[in-house]
Design goal:
This protein is mostly helical. The chain has one domain: Cytochrome C Oxidase, Chain A (Up-down Bundle). The chain has a two-stranded antiparallel ribbon with strand order 1-2. The chain starts with a strand and ends in an 11-residue tail after the last helix. About 50% of the residues are buried.
Length: about 550
């Protein structure tokens, strides 16, 4: 019989009363992977709120034609900081936080391979984020006035040259992202080494949880994709301070070179951000369908294929810059090719749900919404992979709608599913299911209302990155609808924050295994002790905890 050996008396963390200063010190000085994971996630949520407020101001500005809520300079700064924050200070720390908290628990380890490097990664990431926001104080340079960067989250040359960006704000942008990227690389390296070297006895690669598989591949992508961006940022600093002229076309450089370097990072980054949602769905959907994941081996192969192909699709962001027809053809084909393994994953998740005993609790609701919205994102992505179609809609609001369906409809919905699912593990309390459903429906309604109209605006010709527009161009109605959707999304986020605070204070106790799970994180107490497992588990199947609890289930097919 497949089973797992672990103590019948699960270790409980010691209870104790600590002063505020003692508690603060324990968190600041910690090298415990669970606390660092929570610190990453809470920091990401704080930056998410900040980025959401910036987006709300931008949508308020665009709600009506010829609006004057903010001026063009302020709009450009909001646009830059919103995009930069969402990608580097929300998405990336969520990747690190989930990996830090769950990977050691899922593979039966007591901590990450390099605990001190793990702590260093968090603090250097936080310093990078604060350095970026210090631009509001010192970004004006010698003028003495603060000024946030206004070059877009992509910082296209020559807008980043001293001629067009005279203050220090662009330097804060470069250094902030460069420093935060060091933390991301440190965390990714730690996940790779931990996964390869610290699995408990019996935890072979074929038995490793799907979540760990996806985060392992995600970490490799981070290691591969971030160095080109770092190199480009160093080159940009040399251009700005030493006259290197890498991107100065008047001195023999190439502005298109920056685009190549940036998107060599930028498109794998899309998958770096969406892979955590893939990992979450691969754990949540089987639990709430009461079925093992359909086609597990095909799922692993699809994730590996997506990671590999994503390294060769970057120039579909550059169809309009004048590449050769052969280049356009290659990148169009590779962009379409990535849809095949992505489609396999959607099929696997759907097949897992088919015929299962579905429980539509809040985590599962967010997974169902993810499947629909990520399908739409994939279809519009295939449309934009056709270069003649992209020429018509390049830099229009159609593209804005597409990537928000990917990163909000995919990543954020997946993260909500994961937070509702693993919140009991981290706190020992259940989130309120009633508030969770309100959170879900408000966010779905707000999301669809905000981002579906953007596709229509793009087809009607509205370009990106404009701070206002003239009336009677057919854009008024759709912009107003899109802006109204932000209200529902903001209400959903506020409701989630209240749900978290209230549940921590007075929520229902969850017990150690509230979802009747089968992976190792549910084999220890909730929340887990600092050392995770008193005795390292011994694994003999890919669903060890389920096998122990249901050894004679005739309807269950054990995967040895």
């Amino acid at each position: 019989m497949a089973s797992i050996d672990y103590p019948l008396e699960r270790p409980r963390p010691k209870e104790g009363e600590f002063s505020f200063s003692e508690t603060l010190y324990r968190w600041v000085a910690t090298v415990d992977h669970k606390r660092l994971g929570l610190m990453y996630i809470v920091t990401a949520l704080l930056f998410l709120v900040i980025a959401g407020l910036m987006a709300s101001v931008m949508r308020l500005q665009l709600a009506f034609p010829n609006n004057h809520v903010v001026g063009p300079e302020t709009f450009n700064r909001l646009f830059t900081m919103h995009g930069t924050t969402m990608v580097f200070l929300v998405g990336m720390p969520f990747v690190a936080g989930l990996s830090n908290y769950l990977v050691p628990l899922m593979i039966g380890a007591r901590d990450m391979a390099f605990p001190r490097l793990n702590a260093f990664g968090y603090w250097i990431f936080l310093f990078g984020g604060l350095l970026l926001y210090f631009s509001y104080i010192g970004g004006g340079g010698l003028s003495g006035h603060g000024s946030a960067p206004d070059v877009g989250w992509f910082a296209y040359a020559p807008l980043t040259s001293k001629a067009f960006s005279r203050g220090a704000s662009t330097d804060f942008w470069i250094l902030g992202i460069l420093v935060a990227g060091i933390g991301s690389v440190a965390s990714a390296l730690n996940v790779i080494v931990t996964t390869i070297c610290m699995r408990c006895p019996g935890m072979t690669l074929t038995r490793m949880p799907m979540f760990v598989w996806v985060m392992l591949i995600d970490s490799w992508l981070i290691i591969i994709a971030l160095p080109p961006l770092t190199a480009a940022q160093v080159m940009l600093l040399i251009d700005r301070f030493l006259g290197g002229n890498f991107f100065n076309t008047q001195a023999g450089g190439s502005a298109v070179l920056w685009q190549h370097f940036f998107w060599i990072f930028g498109h794998p980054e899309v998958y770096i951000l969406i892979f955590p949602a893939f990992a979450i769905l691969s754990e949540v959907i089987p639990i709430f369908s009461r079925k093992p994941l359909f086609g597990r081996a095909a799922m692993v192969g699809a994730v590996v294929a997506i990671g590999f192909i994503s390294l060769g699709v970057w120039a579909h962001h550059m169809f309009a810059v004048g590449m050769t027809s052969w280049s356009n053809t290659f990148f169009a084909a590779s962009s379409m090719l990535v849809g095949i393994p992505t489609g396999i994953k959607i099929f696997n998740w759907t097949a897992t749900m088919y015929g299962g005993k579905l429980r539509l609790d809040t985590p599962m609701l967010f997974c169902c919404a993810f499947l629909l919205q990520f399908l739409v994102a994939g279809l519009t992505g295939i449309m934009l992979a056709v270069s003649p179609f992209d020429w018509q809609l390049h830099d229009s609001y159609f593209v804005v709608g597409h990537f928000h369906f990917t990163l909000i409809g995919g990543l954020v919905f997946g993260l909500f599913a994961g937070m509702y699912y693993w919140f009991p593990k981290a706190t020992g309390k259940l989130l309120c299911e009633k508030l969770g459903r309100w959170n879900f429906w408000l966010f779905v309604i707000g999301f669809e209302t905000t981002f579906i109209p953007m596709h229509f605006l793009g087809i009607l010709g509205m370009p990106r990155r404009i701070y206002t527009y003239a009336p009677d161009r057919g854009w008024d109605f759709w912009n107003l609808v899109s802006s109204l959707g932000v209200i529902a999304q903001a209400a959903a986020i506020a409701l989630f924050i209240w749900n978290v605070i209230d549940s921590i204070r007075s929520g229902e106790k969850a017990g150690d295994d509230p979802w009747d799970g089968w992976t190792l994180e549910w084999a220890t107490s909730s929340p887990p002790p600092e050392y995770n497992f008193e005795k390292l588990p011994v694994v003999r199947s890919s669903r060890p905890l389920w096998d122990l609890k249901h050894p004679h289930d005739p309807d269950w097919k054990f995967e040895q």
